[in-house]
Amino acid sequence: MRSMYRWMYCAALVAAVVASSASKVSAAELLAPGDLIIAIDVDPPYVDSNYPGPENPGNLLDNDPTTKYLNFGKTGSGFIVTPLSGSSTVQSFQLNTANDAEARDPASFELYGTNSAISSADNSEGNGEPWTLISAGDLFLPSARVSAGSVISFANVSAYTSYKMLFPTVKDAINANSMQLGDAAFFESNDGSGPNVLSPGDAVIAVDNILSLESEHFSFQGADKVIDGTLDKYLNFGEENSGFIVEPGVGASIVTSFQITTAFDAEARDPASWALYGTNDPVTSTDNSRGDAEAWTLIDAGSIVLPTDRDTLGPIVNVSNSTAYSAYRMVFPTVKDANDANSMQIAEVQFNGRILAIPEPTTAMLSLIGLSGLVLRRRRA
Ligand SMILES: [Ca+2]
Ligand SMILES: [Ca+2]
Ligand SMILES: [Ca+2]
Questions:
Q1: Ordered DSSP codes for 53-101
Q2: Measured in angstroms, how far is the CA atom of residue 215 from the centroid of ligand 2?
Q3: pLDDT band, very low/low/confident/very high, at 357 (cuts 50, 70, 90)
């Protein structure tokens, strides 16, 4: 029995030495420039149909191509129109380009019909009614401005009281901030002849059926700027519930605190609360996504009071955590003044904690392990 106690003592001593050695060598900063890091916003997708008042969808119907309909929803935007002329069997249409910015011209269309009353709201997805697809295809509108495109015709034998026209693509989505058209005309003939089914005063609303994600940043203010070691900032227009996913290059770690440096301006944009999540899944979420491609565990959350001073290191925020993770997701649910801010921004962030890399065994540790083995053999003998 006595030798067994001695063996237990030795084993405990080895464990203690290994533990103290590990904590000494691995208490560290966890983030460094070059770590995989992406911008996210965990808010759900939203309908981004919206138009300036003077450029409303009614301008499609006024037979004046110099007045335009412009929708910042860009791809997927369009309109629902209920002609005053009543039920019709449309078999062709013609669109007019607007006054400027060819990149915004629609490059494809989808035309739907319905005989249900329109319950979709202005600037909605336009799915409030059952719709039947009449025709879809590419558009090749002229580069010339305020000019009529070619007549698009298709076979249709069904009469409808309302039509929905969507534009899934524009000519140059990267260089366009919107979709725009000068005029639209629908015809019951299949060659653009005869009277225009549409007329000024028809009920018409703007729609967009391609939803947008909230996370958005300039290329020079991406999430990599929070770990670049400079006061260059990360700014996300997603504002509340935006943040980042980071996979520290040091490998699995146990984060126990973090510290944020404020950006150089606009205090209203400073995070006012935080929620930190961990995962051991490989990070497959992409930049400006919702950051939900991995299984995330909430580690800890709380409020944070960042300094009013700009470009200034904030308080050390303790994180209640004893679990190791290979990647972290930091979300900022609120900013200091949401009414006065158009975004969330910070200059830097650092996570502190323990790195799980196995330390090199010391000579003392090796001799203790040898001693315990010797004791074990003697006890068994
Ligand atoms: Ca017009
Ligand atoms: Ca920075
Ligand atoms: Ca948001």
A1: GGG-GGGGSSS-TTS-EEETT-TTEEEEEE-TT--B---EEEEE--SS-
A2: 18
A3: confident
